[in-house]
Amino acid sequence: MRLVIVTGMSGAGKTQALKMLEDMGFYCVDNLPIPLIETFAELTLSNQAGIRNAALGIDIRSGEDLSVLNRIFDEWSRNRVPFEILFLDAGDETLIKRYKETRRAHPLAAGGRIDSGIEKERAKLAFLKEVADYIIDTSRLLTKELRQELEKIFVNQESYRNLFITILSFGFKYGIPSDADLVFDVRFLPNPYYSEELRPKTGEEKEVRDYVMQHGTAALFLDKLYDLLEFLIPNYVLEGKNQLVIAIGCTGGKHRSVTIARSVYDRFKSREEFGIKMEHRDIDKDNIRKRMV
């Protein structure tokens, strides 16, 4: 029997997560009144209802009753009730954007600004995030990627760490990514842009990668970068960081940055201590601009 408490920030994907867990065979209940949670847990854990796995959605709509959860969780822990807490989070900018796109009102905004509602909600849910077993930041996750993370935890029984890393290539001429935690400038490497044959290609193609990696400078840089990341990442995991964006930039974001981002991703993609994905923000920007001219 597995009992999962699904909670987190409004707009971070809790409803989607519950639907995905339902597809995975969980009996899901959203926004069950907190005074009924203990009764529900007793019924499911005793197997009287024939439920194998259950997921309970709890969020800010529970209001003042949220404070009761501390007592419930403490009691469950003492009695060794097998429960887990999944906390869905996202950056403030992402949450605001999602609310504006859906034209929904934040439950704590009370007709005011969305950002003030988010601030209040973070304060009220802080204790849940602190005790959560799994924290998934959905700021940069596609729906299918969220499903993959949930399957990793609740279906495949794989070891899971809360840190999710995005390796992001970009072009400096289009601006540094605002959400980058670490930024590396690789404009010192050989530039395929000056080769008419290579200019239309990208760092995802072998000819471009070979050009960037010539003379050994890129390989030496990667060795030093790997050493730095091998030191930093475990410390970020220990700190409890749940989202890390490593941005690698060149001039246009098409050749050198893509090559190095691909190399970093390939180096770390098989690691079990964290989730990882790769994005090329500006790889097609030059082509788009040419079509517009």
UniProtKB/TrEMBL annotation:
- Gene3D superfamilies registered for this protein in UniProt: P-loop containing nucleotide triphosphate hydrolases
Q: Where is the RapZ-like N-terminal domain?
A: 1-156
Q: Which residues form the RapZ C-terminal domain?
A: 165-284
Binding-site residues for GTP, renumbered to this chain = 59-62
Pfam families registered for this protein in UniProt: PapZ_C, RapZ-like_N
Give UniProt keywords alphabetically. Answer: ATP-binding, GTP-binding, Nucleotide-binding
In Swiss-Prot or TrEMBL terms, this protein is called Uncharacterized protein
Organism (species):
Lacrimispora saccharolytica (strain ATCC 35040 / DSM 2544 / NRCC 2533 / WM1)
SUPFAM superfamilies noted in UniProt: P-loop containing nucleoside triphosphate hydrolases
Question: A Gene Ontology MF term for this entry?
Answer: GTP binding
Q: Which residues bind ATP?
A: 8-15
Give the transmembrane region(s): none
Tree of life domain: Bacteria
